[in-house]
Amino acid sequence: MIESRVAIKYATALFRTAKRTDQVESISHDLEALCGLLNTNVLFKNFVESPQMEEKDKKELLTSTFKPLISEALFSFLMLALSKHRIQYLASMTNEFQRLVKEDQGIVEARLVTARVLDRPLAEELREELEGATGKKVEMKLELDPSLIGGIVIILGDKIIDRSIRYQLDQLKDQMCALKVC
To answer: Is this prediction's pTM over 0.85?
Structure first.
């Protein structure tokens, strides 16, 4: 919970700065690269996120390594996250920043969860329907969950549309349990 609130707050601030300075694309690219480095280099990640390491040592490393390579806005953002002990949330901040970039471009992500693999024409038809309903370009991610039995679950932003057989059976079960027998 705290991680998502921190990510939203910091990513929003960075996005506003990037937008104001017309650096959204470069900051987005650099942030992804930095996050990728943290994910692939365990020693670097442990050093930067370790509470036992001195903050000045972390700042020196980030300054010597990244200051010449990234924008001043992103560098200041990293220093702020480090000084506020929020650097461990950088991956979540990056994800939220990328979501804001897509939102600004009129793109929304949708997760479609099904019990079986959807064929391409049906997936495209669903994408078109979602684009018509939202008025935005939809990027779909298809997922499988055999426990749904059948049907589909659509996760679009903070909305969930559950049309799975499992959900319908659960609803029927709840209704049956609520019945009073005379």
So the answer is: no
